[in-house]
Amino acid sequence: MNASAPLLVSGLRDIAPEYSAVLCDVWGVLHNGVTKFPEASGALSAFRQKAGGTVVLITNAPRLNGLIREQLAALGIGQDVYDDIVTSGDVTREYIEAHPGAKVLHIGPDIHLSLYEGLDLSLSSEEDATLISCTGLLNDEQETPDDYRDQLERLAKRGLTMICANPDIVVERGERLIWCAGALARLYEDFGGKVAILGKPHAPIYDAACQRLEVLRGAPADRGAILCVGDGLPTDIRGAVSQDLDVLFVTGGIHASDFGPTHEPDEALVRRRLAEEGLRARAAIPRLVW
């Protein structure tokens, strides 16, 4: 990050010529769980159509990519916006698949159970489990991580590994912040438990996304020509930096209140926060636009 060059850009078009591919976050960039952000969809469509770029959506959703396609379609986000999707659920399923016969304790709502369909495993009680798969809170509208303290402490004492299918701590749902599986994983670690985190900011989901890019473009992925787009400092931004990928920081997401007016963030505050976190960004923008 060049301290003398402007960090804030007016749109993706300002830096698009430098990149052949975008790995774009979904929740917080394309929608807030309730409403889509039309200009963000338009920006990705323009990157594909005007700049000839490839777009892979990369999300910490604890579900398989087909369900995310359905959710996006329901929000009015069509497949003209992206070429493919890689989810934390996809890489979680691959991890579990490598542990055939596991007795899995699922922590999360029943809507995530499709993650395990067709795998060689049995969904188990706490007492019999050999592996934990955490996709979220059972009722994220009413519960908090504190409701799980006793159970997580018991499980940690048994030395079970927890697979965290959604590393996000919180996510926007409309105007509210909702607790995610990452918050439970963090608490589990506090109790001394071992956690396998496969989504952002960790390497497996980026490796999977780059493999998709190679298939889509018919050539090895050039990481120097990949731009990540995201709003979460601990996941999207840290993940890109850890993988030595450039990133466009969408400041108007979960950290919006830290930078002044959402649509006119204070660049000095953005730079300071990145420096405090030991992070960098190729550019920043209030909301993704072309």
UniProtKB/TrEMBL annotation:
UniProt keyword Hydrolase present: yes
GO molecular function: hydrolase activity
Pfam families to which the protein is assigned, alphabetical: Hydrolase_6 (PF13344), Hydrolase_like (PF13242)
UniProt entry keywords in alphabetical sequence: Hydrolase
NCBIfam families membership: HAD-SF-IIA, HAD-SF-IIA-hyp4
CDD domains on file: HAD_like (cd07525)
Organism: Roseibium litorale
Name of the protein this chain belongs to: TIGR01459 family HAD-type hydrolase
